[in-house]
Amino acid sequence: MAVSRLGLAASRRIRHGLGPAVGKEEVAGQLAVRVLPFAMLTNAFVPTGGMPGRLAATADRNPVTAAGDRTRRPGVHAGQRGRCRARVVAMEYTHLGRTGLTVSRLCLGTMNFGPHTDEPNAHAIMDAAHEHGINFFDTANVYGWGANKGLTETIIGNWFAKGGGRREKTVIATKLYGDMGEWPNEGRLSALNIRRAVDASLRRLQTDHIDLYQMHHIDRATPWEEIWQAMEVLTAQGKIIYVGSSNFAGWHIAQAQEAARARNFLGLTSEQSLYNLLERSIEREVVPAAQHYGLGLIPWSPLHGGLLGGVLRKEREGVRRTMGRSAETLEAKREQLQAYEDLAAEVGHEPGDIALAWLLSRPAVTAPIVGPRTAEQLHAAVRALSLHLDQKTLDRLDEIFPGHRTAPEDYAW
């Protein structure tokens, strides 16, 4: 189903950062958002009892300036192109899963900050993200990698310290699990490491709280009673607000939520998973679990390491060379990727834009993570918000990259 984000009269308008609008048109240059009921936006299966509180959102920029001139946001196209309708881009917002937390429909991934993007350019990218209306940033305590673990959080903390409302305007998500040292209890999800890891992240980020604290991986050796007790303490202390998971199986989500329910604790609010046109395995069990428990899905690697970004064309132009696992996947999927790039050319849009627009149309998806190395790559990612894929295009994508039904029907019926 293509997502329709325009023309619903019952929608509620909110000024970006200014609270509910009072029914007037806004001057161009400001953002307005329209928050729509979840059920009106997806063909998601909603279990008996429904999915509490999940909203999806849209935004539009008023095309009329104070002087009455029509304006467009620089660098974005509006109008009709092939079977994908493009329009002037303004940031779109949704609630994170069943919570009331409003986040942008694109999440800025920061894994490249430090290893591939130096601090001044990382700061410029984060400033550009705010200019685009992106308020949702994702990081992890291990980013920076190797001897530089924690570097990415430090870069973000230095950016927050510049002031200008940078911290206040940002929903910051970070993660713990990976080993931060070689000594015991410097990784995983013991209560001791959770306590130490959050304090270390707070110092590096130069903030007094983390908006979304995510478990980077399941810890099969630590009981949920211990994990939730530690998270409850951090919540009571005001050090974290929401808890999320990453790379969990569907049954891990169910296990976590039932344990949280027994403690009268909110539990998980989001799941960050590998999800894109080339990798749709989570449709069997993770997506249904997220829908049932009201978790927002945050897909990582939306372009599958660049393979969905027009890799074959770039290969022919001599601007990209794949290596390692990417090269192996490219050879295994070359025929599918060629059909995909042919479709992109047919509808008149960049392959990477189509890959992101497809994710934005998926049930329960809150925000794909885009991890730019440069501001130009960020601007390109924002273009995807202008695309609305029609049903014919969505069907063609399913033919090229077949998905999965919910288990057990996917394999047993």
Automatic annotation (TrEMBL):
Q: Residues in domain NADP-dependent oxidoreductase?
A: 105-400
Which InterPro entries does the record associate with it? AKR_Detox_Biosynth, NAD(P)_OxRdtase_dom_sf, NADP_OxRdtase_dom
Q: What SUPFAM superfamilies does its record include? A: NAD(P)-linked oxidoreductase
Q: Which named protein is this?
A: Aryl-alcohol dehydrogenase-like predicted oxidoreductase
Pfam family for this entry, one: Aldo_ket_red
Instruction: State the residue spans of region: Disordered.
Output: 56-80
Instruction: Tell me what organism the protein belongs to.
Output: Kitasatospora paracochleata
Give the classification, highest ranks.
Bacteria, Bacillati, Actinomycetota, Actinomycetes, Kitasatosporales
